[in-house]
């Protein structure tokens, strides 16, 4: 493989720039809903399956509890989620949506649709982009653990 070191030829830079642009677009759109982008990701996971443990959320979001716990604390202070210790295992903390957290789902759907329209890519390109991004995460995750 040719070692072309020009910036515009780097996959890592393309991913970095795309991630920054995507996060910035969401940041602006989510501000009115009172969510940060990482909080939005937590909400997506909980809208999909409410009542996940911190550990399960971390696994879904590829985050450690040290990163996730302060995020959940801020969301709890904002009234979006509630944390509960499991009766059978006090070390396990479950995160559940509050009524306010459930109510944000409709607004988040509108935000998602608006950003997808702005992106203006055919659905099959979005599917392929997601597949390729997951492949990168999977490949680099395997390399990380060896």
TrEMBL record:
SUPFAM superfamilies hit by this protein: Winged helix' DNA-binding domain (SSF46785)
GO BP terms: namely:
response to stress
* Cell compartments where the protein resides: Cytoplasm
Q: Which Pfam families match?
A: MarR
Q: Which residues form the HTH marR-type domain?
A: 8-138
PROSITE patterns, per the entry: HTH_MARR_2
Its GO CC terms? cytoplasm
Protein name per the record = MarR family transcriptional regulator
Per UniProt, the keywords (alphabetical) are: Cytoplasm, DNA-binding, Transcription, Transcription regulation
Keyword presence, Acyltransferase: no
* Record GO terms (molecular function): DNA binding; DNA-binding transcription factor activity
Record flagged with keyword DNA-binding: yes
């Amino acid at each position: 493989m040719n070692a072309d070191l020009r910036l515009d030829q780097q996959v890592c830079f393309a991913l970095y720039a795309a991630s920054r642009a995507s996060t910035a677009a969401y940041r602006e759109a989510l501000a009115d809903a009172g969510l940060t982008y990482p909080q939005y990701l937590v909400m997506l996971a909980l809208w999909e399956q409410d009542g996940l443990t911190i550990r399960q959320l971390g696994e879904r979001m590829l985050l450690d509890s040290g990163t996730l716990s302060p995020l959940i604390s801020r969301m709890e202070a904002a009234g979006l989620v509630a944390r509960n210790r499991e009766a059978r295992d006090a070390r396990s903390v479950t995160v559940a949506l509050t009524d306010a957290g459930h109510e944000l789902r409709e607004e988040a759907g509108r935000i998602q649709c608006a950003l997808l329209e702005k992106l203006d890519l055919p659905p099959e390109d979005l599917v392929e982009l997601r597949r390729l991004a997951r492949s990168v995460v999977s490949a680099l995750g395997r390399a990380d653990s060896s």
